[in-house]
Amino acid sequence: MTETLENPAWRKIRAGGVVTCMSVRMARGVEVAILARSCGFDAIYLDILHSAMSIEIAGQICLAANLAGIASFVRVPDEPGYIARVLDNGALGVIVPQVDNAEQARRIASECRFPPRGQRSVPGVGAMLGYRKIGAGEAATELDEATMVVAMIETPQAAANAAEIAAVPGIDCLLVGSNDLKVSLAAEGRREDTDIMECYRQVADGCRREHKIFGIAGVRNDAERLADLVRLGARFFTAGNDEAFALAEGRRQADFVREACEAALDWC
Questions:
Q1: Model confidence over 18-47: pLDDT tens digits?
Q2: What is the DSSP string of 172-237?
Q3: In 3D, which of 110, 195, 108, 212 has the Cα closest to residue 160?
Q4: What is the dihedral of CA 104, 106, 112, 118, to 10 degrees?
């Protein structure tokens, strides 16, 4: 860990790069942080919203990621208490689901930011800050500068309100949850292919206007679509989760061994 806490995702985006993030739902050990770095990801996010992972385990993996030199995020339920605990125990950022309007965004930002920008309580100088001898004010400033606050846009209403959400001080990134957005569009009887791109454009325009980060979750393995999104301004992508990666490689290897053995049996 560097002497001063730094968020590698911020560093890469500010240098003009694109951040790729791996979602973690299944793994429970700190090794997954090293695995993500070895795969070439810039960040991990621990999905305690959709898994049984505890805050304690999430904190340990986040600290391991920070030491490994990749950014650590946690997707939290939008409920009191979660945000402060994951930030105090290792996460360099939070991803908050279903942010539909500026009022929600202001409440989230207040929970994440120290006074005068918010109401977050200073946790003391712990493992995140290397147990250094620094004052509470310096600790708050350092933690605040390293923290990235991500609001998920998952409905057409949220996309329409993207500019207002992006304008909220303390919100850093708008991350479109593509799968939930598709479900929301279908529920309204709208066409996925055309309407989801329009939602992407609304969020991209809002982020560009307010100088915030535009991100995409749930991307397809489609190079042309990814290129279109980068041209729109997207700089933060979640690129799959540990469950999907394990299943894909497990199925591939099982198919390979079975087919090779069955072919050999034909010659017996």
A1: 999 999 999 999 999 999 999 999 999 999
A2: -EEEEEHHHHHHHHHHTT--HHHHHHHHHHHHHHHHHHHT-EEEEES--S-HHHHHHHHHHTEEEE
A3: 195
A4: -150
Q: Which of 11, 50, 117, 252 is catalytic?
A: 50
Phi, psi of 175 (to 5 degrees): -110, 115
Cβ atoms of 185 and 197 closer than 8 Å: no
Rounded Cα gap, residues 229 and 159, in angstroms:
15
Average pLDDT, the chain: 94
Pair 37, 71: CB distance under 8 Å: no
Comparing CA positions, the residue from 116, 68, 115, 117 lying closest to residue 92 is: 68
Query: 249 vs 239, 244, 246, 253, 256, CA distance in Å?
Result: 16, 9, 5, 6, 10
Contact (CB, 8 A) for 114 and 88: no
For residue range 57-78, list pLDDT tens digits in order: 999 999 999 999 999 999 999 8
Q: Please tell me the distance from the alpha carbon of residue 131 to that of residue 2, in angstroms, as a whole number.
A: 12
Can you tell me the distance from the alpha carbon of 141 to that of 210, in angstroms, rounded to the nearest whole number?
A: 22
If you search the block for the tokens 């099982």, which residue do you land on?
254
Annotated catalytic residue 211: no
User: Look-up: residue for tokens 């694109």?
Assistant: 18
